[in-house]
Structure formats: structure tokens, C-alpha cells
């Protein structure tokens, strides 16, 4: 009986160890910059003042006291990366996810950053949600408003690919910028980010 109990304990320890290793392999190399309410200390705000806060299981903003966009900027710079983002936007939200922003004090496409658009109502629909603003259009048109969505962004060398909810919405070879910060834009309408993980390539 004692041998049976001892054997069962050994098998339980092995199972837990293997399970733990499998879990580590799934997350190996990934760093969480936002995980529910956690992660505000990985960012600082540039641009106009907005009410960025951790609330309800997400980092979010819905009001501004200034003119123009407010951007959460990562404290670290990245070059080649994979980015996984879970976000919620309303129908009228104007937001976006920046990568490779070379100037952390001025994060926009004019300064060299790439912006993965979150703006269903962009008057220029070819640069609506899922596009790379001013780089490659989205076709067909995808909508994000009123639900949780995912972006998977891959940037290695000149290749940049964007998936929204598992579907490729933009893919381009472009050599404008190779390294910089990640940015999360708020420019009107509520935006929430509940997961943001990055993996350096």
C-alpha cells in the first residue's frame, strides 16, 4: 500500500512538472506589458493629457483635457517583434497601436512610426481598422466597434504583417523604420487594452 501511494505521488510530481514545462514553452520569450489591470508602470503618456487608467480588467481611456492624440508609450524600444493585443473599441473610437516609433516624445506616422489603425469611421476607409496607416490599405473593410478584438502584429526586418481576429488585414515590405517604441493611441471614443504581450525576434 505504501509503495502504491509513493508511486502515485511520484507520478503526480512528474505530471505537474511536465505540465509546468508545457506552460512555460507556450509563454517562452513573451513579455506581458499589459495584463488586465496590471502594466501601467510599463508606459508613460505623451501628447495630450487623457484619463489613462487601470480599471475593470483593462488599461483604458475615454476622456482628454487637451487637443490631439494622447499616446501610451512603452518604456522600452523594440526592433523585430511579435505583438499580441486584445482591445475593445466603440463604433466611434479613433485609436491605434504603434510599433517602431523612433521618437518617444512624438509618436505618430509622420515621425516614422507604423500605426495599426483602430478607427471604424475613418473618412478614408482604406485606412480604417486593420490597416497600416499611410502604408497599406485594408480590403475588405473590417469593423472592431462594440466587441473585444485581437491584433497579432509581426515585424521582422522589412516585413510587417497584421492579423485582426486571426485574419490577415495588412502585409507589406517597407523599410521606413526598423526600431522604436510601442504606442497605444487615444484620440476620441473609448478604448480598452486588456492584454498586450511582446516577443522579440
A few lines on this structure:
With 201 residues, the chain is mainly beta.
The biggest beta sheet reads: 8 strands, antiparallel
Radius of gyration: 20 Å
| Helix-strand string | HEEEEEEEEEEEEE
Strand coverage percent: 35-45%
In total, the number of domains comes to 1
**Name of the level-1 CATH class:** Mainly Beta
Structural class, judged by helices and strands? mainly beta
Fourth-level CATH superfamily: Exo-inulinase, domain 1
Distance between the termini: 52 Å
State the helix count. 1
Structure summary, number of beta strands: 13
Q: Please mark out the parts with pLDDT under 50 across 5 or more consecutive residues, or reply none.
A: 4-25
- The CATH topology turns out to be Jelly Rolls
What is the molecular shape?
Answer: globular
Task: Describe the 3D structure.
- The protein has 201 residues and is mainly beta.
- 13% of the residues lie in helices and 44% in strands.
- It has one helix spanning 2-27, and strands at residues 30-35, 43-47, 53-55, 58-61, 70-78, 81-89, 95-101, 114-118, 147-156, 159-164, 167-173, 180-186, 191-200.
- The strands form 2 sheets. Strands 1, 3, 4, 6, 9, 10, 11 and 13 form an 8-stranded antiparallel beta sheet that branches.
- Strand 3 (53-55) and strand 4 form a beta hairpin.
- The model is unreliable at 4-25 (pLDDT under 50).
